[in-house]
Design goal:
Blueprint lengths: L1 H69 L19 E9 L7 E6 L4 E7 L7 E6 L12 E5 L4 E14 L7 E2 L2 E4 L7 E6 L6 E9 L2 E9 L8 E6 L4 E5 L4 E5 L1
Antiparallel strand pairs: 1-6, 2-5, 2-6, 3-4, 3-6, 7-14, 8-13, 9-12, 9-14, 10-11, 10-13
Length: 257
Amino acid sequence: MRKLKLLSVLFFSSFILSACSDPFNELADEINGWLGSDSTNTSEEITDPENEETETNTESDTETGTDTAGDTEEIENLDYSHLMNQGEAVTVDEGVHEVGKDIEPGRYVITADSGYGNIYVKNEENRGGFSETLAGESDSREGQATKIVGFLDEGYSVEITNFENVNFTPYETVSVETIFPGQWVAGEDFPAGVYDVSLPETEETGSLEVSAHPEYNKSRHTLGSAEYGGMTEFTMSFEDGDIVNLRYMPEITLTER
């Protein structure tokens, strides 16, 4: 009896569900349609701005790359041509002096009458220039430098230590075969080319530097005492415009090949 009642209830329930399935299906279809429509619209609204932004960035990157490729960094070379055969003779005392104020711009031979001290020359960016240890003409000994040649441009500073007075005499460019400490220009003071460089045997040590850029040397040779890696004979080449800086050696001889 209980089984019969259970079967009757199940049959009646399935009949009700089958009768109501269509409304539920229609309602589900409408809901799915709404959801599908919103999902599609939302997807389009998100996707399109991203695509536009990506395209904009790509175009911007392309333009930037084109501009960068067009930029070329200019190489700054040393050029003292405007100072050749320029200057005005002057004698200054110990201390720091400004070129353009205490000393006229130009190219000078620097000497001292007596004493033993140092000359330091720097430009306004605290680079370049030259330095040398000098002996006064009345106090010099063999192997000591007694003069320097160098370029003094507007804005340079000249520091003099351990000298009462130092003389600055304008230097007139002539062709040379022997050079003393300071700055020389290949193509102006001697022709560009290949040279045998020589100096007397000595226990002192100095250097020969060649540069065309304010911050870099093209080559550097240690001169003098072999005990400290110095040489007294070697061969090297010079190009037009090379600045040749001899330091701490009284003189060297250049013999063109």
